[in-house]
Amino acid sequence: MAALCRGRHRWKRINILNVFTRSLTGKFDYDLLVIGGGSGGLSCSKEAAQLGQKVAVLDYVEPSAKGTKWGLGGTCVNVGCIPKKLMHQAALLGTAVKDAKKYGWQISETVSHDWATMAEAIQNHVRSLNWGHRVQLQDKKVKYLNLKGSLVDEHTVRGLTKAGKGTILTAKNIVIATGGRPNYPTNIPGAMEHGITSDDIFWLKKSPGKTLVVGASYVALECAGFLTGIGLDTTVMVRSIALRGFDRQMAGLVTDYMEAYGTSFAWKSIPKRVEKLSSGALQVTWTDTQTGREHKDTYDSVLWAVGRAPETKTLGLDKLGVELNEESGKIVVGADESTSVPNIYAFGDIGEGRPELTPTAVKAGKLLARRLAGQSTEVMNYDNVPTTVFTPLEYGCVGLSEEEAETRHGKDGIEVYHAFYKPLEFTVAERDAGQCYIKVVCERGGDQKILGLHFTGPNAGEVTQGFSMGLQCGATYSHLLQTVGIHPSCAEEVVKINITKRSGLDPTVTGC
Predict the structure, then answer these.
(1) Which listed residue (88, 113, 409, 487) is catalytic?
(2) Tens digits of residue pLDDT in 184-217
(3) Residue 23's pLDDT band (boundaries 50, 70, 90)?
(4) Residues 205 and 231 occupy one common structural domain
(5) Is the Cα torsion angle 461, 467, 473, 475 positive or negative in sign?
(6) Same domain, 430 and 461
(7) Inter-axis angle of helices 39-50 and 358-372, to 10 degrees?
(8) Is the pTM of this model over 0.90?
(9) Looking at the domain assignment, is residue 450 inside a domain?
(10) Dmax of the chain from CA atoms?
(11) CA nearest 466: which of 481, 485, 447?
């Protein structure tokens, strides 16, 4: 205890000396110090360095509850977008192999999937990205520090090594870009002891086998989709609704396709406990909230996808008076990413009300760096940000959902154009296209400005990306009609769309 007290007094003396020295010299170790080495933090730091700022990045990954850890690059690179998309691609290739027979390919042997081969290749790619980020920081003269950072004051950060050795760093401005981590439910016995999260699934050496995915966010559905696609028995347990925050009709199409694709759904169900049997299997007990009945089944893996929590607890924000949203735990930020404390900024997933998307964090980080360097006054525009859910049938969207448009403009103030279409690729393969659908939500009056665009089908991300620029430019329905489509493509169905929901006519596309 005496040693601990001496340690505290030593840090106090260092902090006082540090502040005193700064007040005399007016100098800092860095112009900008970024806490968090994810996509946003790296983007911000590299941009600042390019503009002549002296910059350091602190990044430290706390292992998951299962001990999974990874390198520089944050969630997207290590346990998010990149490995997710690659495993989604593995699943798409499995579907393509089935389609190939209809196209004349002679595939004589039984096709099976090997998890270890896929996982090793993806993990090696992620490691190459980790190394690439370190090289980029070095090339751009950004100091990379593998330290766990916490704030001492508005210009000072304490960094801790894995061994517990402390370092004091000062900066004119401090940026927090620590992102978030998956939640475990705290009221379900065995949840953490026997379950995994998205922090673990991409780094498993062995197949997860028969898997229960608890949750219905895009993370849950994407994971369930690629697990089903590579041939694993997969069930999604849904407490209330799927894809909360997305268009309701589109969410239903996504889950309908997944059920037809082979994923099982336990709707309106709440898990009660997870127990490990002597056989090694995990027995899950849950309640059907519609009937009140209790059910049990066994699984090889239980994947919790029940939300994410911001990485704010260890930053010392409360001592500095940085305002947090009490409910979400996220940092309250202004339009310029400023916090309630001068010289401290925050952006990305950790910011209250910000979309939890890599591209927005990357762009917001660059713009923040330019403003802090005095090179720009431009702030991030968070309107009409496109995104795609990489489920077996991909869902891309930009702008307002139909529900949001109704709330803002009234049911009589919007016009919804829609179409069910069949991708040409599905025809020979005899695949069901019942959930391939396009919806364009417009203002009803005037030029019929497009408020939102929604698309389910192959390559949804590629389709949505192009149309998202149109929304940024104020596209109208007449602009769509003036656009020449590329034939034959799925994207051309968007510019051909002409049936309104209000008309009650059949929106099924027939012919060219």
Answers:
(1) 487
(2) 999 999 999 999 999 999 999 999 999 999 999 9
(3) very low
(4) yes
(5) negative
(6) yes
(7) 30
(8) yes
(9) yes
(10) 83
(11) 485
Question: How far is the C-alpha of 96 from the C-alpha of 98, rounded, in Å?
Answer: 5
Percent of the chain with pLDDT over 70: 95
Strands (E) in 194-261, as ranges, are: 211-214, 234-237
Alpha helix (H) residue ranges in 32-159 = 39-50, 74-79, 81-102, 115-139
Angle between helices 402-409 and 248-261 (to 10 degrees): 170
- State the pLDDT confidence band at 233, using cuts at 50, 70 and 90: very high
| Whether residues 324 and 298 fall in one domain | no
Residue 133, judged by CB atoms within 10 A of its CB (0-12, 13-18, 19+), counts as buried
Name the pLDDT band for 22 (thresholds 50, 70, 90): low
pLDDT, average across residues 276-297: 97
CB 357 within 8 A of CB 387: yes
- Final residue of a structural domain among 250, 276, 306: 306
* Consecutive H or E run containing 30: strand 30-35
Q: What is the pLDDT of residue 16?
A: 45
> For residues 446 and 330, what is the distance between their CA atoms, to the nearest angstrom?
40
Q: Which two tokens stand for residue 71?
A: 């390198």
Give yes or no: residues 442 and 470 share one domain.
Answer: yes
pLDDT(25) > 50: no
Task: Determine the Cα–Cα distance for residues 15 and 198; give it in Å rounded to an integer.
Answer: 38
Count the helix, strand and coil residues of the chain and give each as a percent rounded to the nearest 5.
Answer: 35, 25, 40
Which residues partner with 153 through β-bridges? Answer: 156
DSSP symbols for 102-120: HTT----SPP---HHHHHH
In whole numbers, what is the pLDDT of the chain averaged over residues? 94
Task: From 437, 359, 358, 362, select the one nearest 393 (Cα to Cα).
Answer: 437
Active site residue 487: yes
Alpha carbon distance 190, 284 (integer Å): 9
